[in-house]
Design goal:
By secondary structure, the chain is an alpha/beta fold. It has 13 helices and 10 strands. The protein folds into 2 domains: 9-116 and 300-316, 3-Layer(aba) Sandwich (Rossmann fold), CATH 3.40.50.2000; 119-298, Rossmann fold. The chain has helices at residues 18-29, 40-46, 67-83, 92-97, 129-133, 155-162, 178-188, 201-210, 227-234, 248-251, 266-278, 280-298, 300-316, and strands at residues 33-37, 55-59, 86-89, 110-112, 142-146, 168-172, 193-197, 213-216, 239-242, 258-261. The strands form 2 sheets. The chain has a 6-stranded parallel β-sheet with strand order 7-6-5-8-9-10, with helices on both faces. A 4-stranded parallel β-sheet has the order 1-2-3-4. Helix 2 packs parallel to helix 3, helix 6 crosses helix 11 and helix 9 crosses helix 12. The longest helix has 19 residues, at 280-298.
């Protein structure tokens, strides 16, 4: 089902009155309805579904920053959650630490199925011209961040760590923190930090394939999973991330696919980067293990099997 979004207050798309009738017709034909959370308009649509229709909800993230919206939304949210036959968390740690998912009222309905990427949907050929534009020499080791420059990404810690790292650090992406990060780079004299700006899918593929390791320094729980980690694993790259009690440490298994460090510790980020920079054998081994973990847990085939089994369970329940 596709429906025009008429507005998106607080990033919540609203589909308009016509969406309810269309959803009701489609829901009547379906064996199982699958919702994504948080999306308050989806909770409203759920009111239009036929009573007793089997339903599954994939719980992407707690409502972290919009606390006032969360309070208004809470009664509707809990009514929807109680209607679900299964609630999918994307990582074991998130299921355990979420104040919603760990609630005894719904805890027995929680299943863990990670997020993932179907490799066929991604750019297969990288645009390596981006390396020349960033003045990166062929074969030069560099560390990479890719994503929207948001408050919870911990990029201030990465910039502060840069002066202690013996390689360039590329920050690819744009966002609301861009101006302050440029100012921070200038104030701390981090000459090895390169801002790539917005990159295409082909450029992103080239950067991930050529980097020493991908760094996701997110320090707040708003980073619920970290899909860029899955992209790095898919391309066989080791990762560095922070332990924030969410899905990031499920994708990047410490010591198996990369390094997981304490959040808000620039020195820990620098130590992890320098450790990978100094050990070619370790870096290669972690990258191979990352690819194997992707195939086992986060590939299109793996997720297809997990959701197919869940939908059969729910539909027959």
């Amino acid at each position: 089902m596709r429906q025009r979004s008429w507005a998106a207050p607080a990033s919540c798309d609203l589909g308009g009155v016509a969406a309810f009738g269309r959803f009701r017709r489609l829901a009547a034909e379906a064996d199982v309805i699958h919702y994504l959370f948080p999306w308050p308009f989806g909770d409203l649509l759920h009111r239009a579904a036929p009573p007793g229709k089997p339903a599954v909800l994939t719980y992407i993230s707690d409502i972290v920053r919009q606390q006032w919206i969360g309070k208004l939304y809470s009664p509707l949210m809990w009514k929807t959650l109680h209607d679900m036959r299964a609630i999918v968390a994307n990582a074991p740690a998130y299921a355990q630490t979420s104040p919603v998912l760990s609630n005894p009222a719904i805890r027995d309905r929680v299943r863990v199925v990670p997020l993932g990427i179907d490799e066929r949907s991604c750019a297969q050929c990288g645009d390596e011209a981006i390396l020349g534009r960033l003045q990166l020499a062929e074969g030069e080791s560099f560390f990479l961040f890719v994503g929207v420059l948001r408050y919870y990404k911990g990029l201030h810690n990465l910039v502060q760590a840069a002066g202690s790292v013996g390689a360039k650090i590329v920050i690819a992406g744009s966002g609301p923190e861009g101006r302050s990060l440029h100012s921070l780079v200038a104030s701390v004299g981090a000459r090895n930090v390169i801002f790539a700006g917005q990159v295409s899918d082909e450029e992103k593929t080239a950067l991930i394939r050529c980097c020493r390791a991908l760094v996701l320094p997110s320090h707040l729980r708003s980073e619920a999973f970290g899909m860029v980690l899955v992209e790095a694993a898919m391309l066989g790259k080791p990762m560095i991330s922070c332990e924030i009690g969410t899905g990031t440490s499920f994708v990047n298994a410490d010591g198996e696919t990369g390094c997981v460090v304490e959040p808000d510790k620039p020195a820990a980020l620098a130590d992890a980067m320098n450790h990978l920079l100094a050990d070619d054998v370790l870096t290669t081994r972690l990258g191979v293990a990352a690819r194997a973990r992707y195939e086992r847990l986060f590939s299109g085939e793996a997720l297809g099997r997990e959701y197919a089994a869940l939908f059969r369970e729910v539909g027959n329940g």
